[in-house]
Design a protein that fits this description.
The complex is a heterodimer of chains A (about 280) and B (about 375). Helix content of chain A is about 35%, strand content about 15%. Chain A is α/β, with parallel strands linked by helices and about 280 residues long. Chain A has a single domain, classed as Thiamin diphosphate (ThDP)-binding fold, Pyr/PP domains (Rossmann fold, 3-Layer(aba) Sandwich), CATH 3.40.50. In chain A, helix 1 packs across helix 6 and helix 4 packs across helix 5. Chain B has two domains: about 180 residues, Thiamin diphosphate (ThDP)-binding fold, Pyr/PP domains (Rossmann fold, 3-Layer(aba) Sandwich), CATH 3.40.50.970; about 110 residues, Rossmann fold, CATH 3.40.50. The longest helix of chain B is centred in the middle third of the chain and has 18 residues. Classes of the chains: A alpha/beta (about 280), B alpha/beta (about 375).
Chain lengths: ~280, ~375
Amino acid sequence: MAVAKQKLSVPFDYDKYLRKDKLPHIWCPGCGHGIVLKSLLRAIDNKELSKDDLCMVSGIGCSSRTPGYVDFNTLHTIHGRAFSFATGLKLAKPSLKMIIATGDGDAMAIGGNHFIHTCRRNIDMLIIVYSNAIYGMTGGQSSPTTPIGSIATTARYGNVEPPFDICEMAKAAGATFVARGTAYHTQELERTFTEALGHKGTAVVEVIDSCPIYFGRMNKQRGASEMMENIEKNGTFSVKQADKLPDEKKEGKLVRGILHRVERPEYCEQYDKLIVAKATK
Amino acid sequence: MAAKKKLMQGNEACAAGALYAGCKFYAGYPITPSTEVAEIMSVELPKIGGKFIQMEDEIASMAATIGGSLAGLKSLTATSGPGFSLKQEALGYACITEVPCVIINVMRGGPSTGYPTGPSQSDIMQAKWGTHGDHPVIALTPAYVQEILDETVRAFNLSEKYRTPVIVLFDEIVGHMREPITIPEPGDLEVVDREKPDCTPEEYKPYDDTKLIAPLAPFGDGYRFHVTGLNHSEDGFPTNNSEMIDKNNRRIMQKIDDNIDDICKNDESNLEDAEIGLFAVGSTSRSAKFSVNAAREKGIKAGLLRPLTIWPFPDKAVSELAEKCKVIIVPELNLGQMVNEVKRVAAGRCEVIGIHRVDGEPIKPAQITELIEKYS
């Protein structure tokens, strides 16, 4: 499934969604998290969502600091549990439009159990996994998406553990919208977020991002812009290219775009339809 | 109208109390011996516009409970020892973010999986110190089925009033005991609702430090604010300012410390002229009461101090007891938790002796009576 082309509004007033007095943000120079946030804010604008209804929940880590900068109802929780806090909020108040900001460590390691059960329930929320293959906040330890052989402060001899495929995990667990974008392909990411925000159910968007300060330096990558270019040239290919490219060109790369989209009853609606209807009969 | 009497199990009474208090949200995970609370809430909440969810684990249950409360619903979870351990990090989060919620812990034998169907009182200290960092704790200790209902209502009231999680601790014996109780009519018991802000969203500060307890706006009502488990300033955003960190850390303790008389509650029997004092909670306090009555029949001046609020610790009442008694006997279903607190408060003014049992059996009156008679 290709991401539908949409007219992109180039000049954009980000300020209306940001808590400007809380800037500058804590992200390091060269980090892609701010780029991802920009694509998200544009997508929110495309969907004309109300700031009073938007609720952003996060766990712990660099990406989990996002809620502090956006002028919504925002909840910065504990490591790995953003999904569970958000599930409580959404079930208690279904009018809230939930967005989870999480990282590869937060979502796939400590929060893995909550991630898969959130997908299974198909509760209406957009989960954005900022995936940079490292624990940045704590200083560069290996994560569940660190490639085999990569160096991290807890994998000085090279990481021996195979990485998770976040999108495959989401799909297998029952998420009804699964996509992958990158911090390089910003317009595509905006379109993907726009589609995801319009989806009813659990939508997971993995965003391939780079951490030049820890991952880059330890793995002898030249700099932030080179790492970004590497995402473009050597890291991914689009779903449109998937059928055309020979296997050897896809080797070691990740596919971008909307990878899975199905309709399945959403949790809060099912609660009303099945449980409340029977309980109040 | 005649009062409505009903034969009820302790865990059932707990659910009834939560519903009476206006609980509209429950997130939990099955665990013996508390599961009946979840089962009943799963049936009752959908009937009254409330929400029930069985989460994937105890941690998620605590997190979802806090989420439900932030959306504006009075929220409950119930568990037992191992689950209570798992909930601790999120419980601390509720303390620092000042999100009201009620946690029921039907205590079973430990450590670890221990004795799931056996009674225990070994989470007294976990309730106080389970989560890291200095934090406020309110924990209630009902001993009768009626009291479980009444104290669950009080737990919600204290939680909403003081914007803090409240723990209700009762042992498996009381949780699974059946007794006839009076079901309160609406209005019979006080029900406290959360204070909401009366200012504009622009003026709203979720941790307004000109107040000891600021009103809490629900998410989604136009008050867009930030909540974080990081040390934060009065606007809710993280801060590294030492002065602000200190002020907030002290304020969340002070809101409890300044209101001890409102939070503490004790049941006293035969204490006026007591020379031998007993200090006990839960099922153990029922044995203690029996022993006190038996002692009185023999002319022994024994009396019982039975705290219904174990945290904050009833220092004032224990201090008075230490003044008048030659000994305070502390029977408890653990290897010595409350007894050390009693010793701290007594500060050498009288002897303090513990009776401890961890074999999954209750402390029976005979064991207490024997000690009372020894000191008489």
